[in-house]
Amino acid sequence: MNLETLLNRIPVLEITGNKNPEVSEIVFDSRKAVENSLYVAIKGTVSDGHSFINAAIEKGTKIVVCEDLPESLNNEITFIKVKDSSKVLGQLASNFYGNPSEKLNLIGITGTNGKTSATTLLFDIFKNLGFQSALISTVEYRIADEIFPSTHTTPDVLTLNKILAKAVETGCEYAFMEVSSHGIDQNRTEGLHFKIAGFTNITHDHLDYHKTFDAYLKTKKRFFDDLNADSIAITNIDDKNGNVMLQNTKAQKKTYALKTMADYHGRILEADFNGMLLNFNGKEFWSTLTGKFNVYNLLLAYAVTIECGFYEDDVLKAISNLKRVKGRFETLKSEGGIFFVVDYAHTPDALENILDSINEIRTKNERLITVFGCGGDRDHAKRPEMGKIATRKSTLAIITSDNPRRENPAIIIKEIEAGVEPQNYSKYTAIPDRKEAIKMAIKFAEPKDIILVAGKGHEDYQEINGVKHHFDDKEVIMELSQLMSK
């Protein structure tokens, strides 16, 4: 692509050198520079890309986009000065791949919990409606029936546009993507055109990165602030910050809720471990999903699909045929009659939601045993909160390791234990080895008891000292259940 086409709609402060060279590729990592590539120098939190301009040139870069021009300019190199390289990267990526987000109906879902479930449910609903779509989620990336491993909740903006361009090429009309706070803050969604933006909720998380809840909230809000007037913003107004997302958006505003009046209103009529009888906007239907948090996810997916122009009866039929999202309230039953729930809940709010959902369904004759931990090298403040919630709402809580990463598991467990209230000291134990913790839960359980194994969900690994070891909660449960029933 020639540079003039690539710079379409991009505010440039100054250009030196050849004004219209050909661009073979865009890179923002100097190590990936190739002949005739365009290198974008970004000022990051850890390093400044301007320090690697010469390294990129040595590898063949002929065009450099930067915020600060070098003191000595090379006439053979085109230098483009911009105000914000990080934002310009997104616009360049979009132009380079033919602005694919403008050729698709792109739906972005943000919030602390529910992003993966909502986007995956939408992908499956549209498949049931007969449409090919793309999915960009924590669990996986999908283009129609082709599956790719996920690297980030929201990948870098070059990867994003590459995926979306391939989706257009494949014939997809819709794309559903999780929009993380990290992705918003690092401008990974810059240059994308969203038809619909959905908000699930916002609770305590990622404060290791954002430092304060206010900063986290404002980052989420920025996603809606940046929407165009032809976009639609759909927010959960049962969440106390739901309306905050809509305060400055230019998009059309829509709401959904279970507790308050909204454009899209839902009610739970019946619920058990097999599913729920629901009422959305006056129409009843059955879903195999369960848990109040899943009603919110389904209601958001329903709202998005209706806003895309589909008939209500067709949408409800497609929703009724949905299966559970991998690692989200997945249920298993052992030969001995023990009921297992595997879920990705790894924040205080998510853990509380799933425990509340189980407690609403169980008859209280069964005991509820919770196995959980907290990830290492992440937000420390949520650890005691999760300790308090798990011990308060379970018959027994077994605190164990999640992904300790480079932290000492014993220290993580002590921080979780700090939140346990004195009256609940007798309701927990700590077993650092996750497999042994699950084994203890099964040993303690009796027929009809419920064991919740929370925190990892779909993940099939455990990261210890920076090394990923194969570990799948469901596999371990089935293996131990069979061994211990003999």
Explain the overall architecture.
The protein has 486 residues and is α/β, with parallel strands linked by helices. The protein folds into 3 domains: 3-96, 3-Layer(aba) Sandwich (Udp-n-acetylmuramoylalanyl-d-glutamate--2,6- Diaminopimelate Ligase, Chain: A, domain 1), CATH 3.40.1390.10; 100-320, UDP-N-acetylmuramoyl-L-alanine:D-glutamate ligase (3-Layer(aba) Sandwich); 330-485, Protein-Tyrosine Phosphatase, Chain A (Alpha-Beta Complex). 32% of the residues lie in helices and 23% in strands. The chain has helices at residues 3-6, 53-58, 85-96, 115-128, 157-170, 181-185, 207-210, 213-225, 292-307, 312-320, 348-361, 382-393, 409-417, 434-444, 473-485; strands spanning 14-16, 25-27, 37-40, 63-66, 78-81, 105-110, 133-136, 140-143, 146-149, 174-178, 196-199, 232-236, 252-257, 264-272, 275-280, 283-287, 330-333, 339-343, 368-372, 396-399, 428-430, 450-454, 461-464, 467-470. The strands form 4 sheets. It has an 11-stranded mixed sheet with strand order 9-8-7-10-6-11-12-13-14-15-16, sandwiched between helices. A 6-stranded mixed sheet has the order 17-18-22-19-20-21, sandwiched between helices. Strands 1-5-4-3-2 form a 5-stranded mixed sheet. Strand 15 and strand 16 (283-287) form a beta hairpin. 49% of the residues are buried. Meso-2,6-diaminopimelate binds at residues 378, 402-405, 455, 459. Its EC number is 6.3.2.13. The modification N6-carboxylysine is found at residue 220.
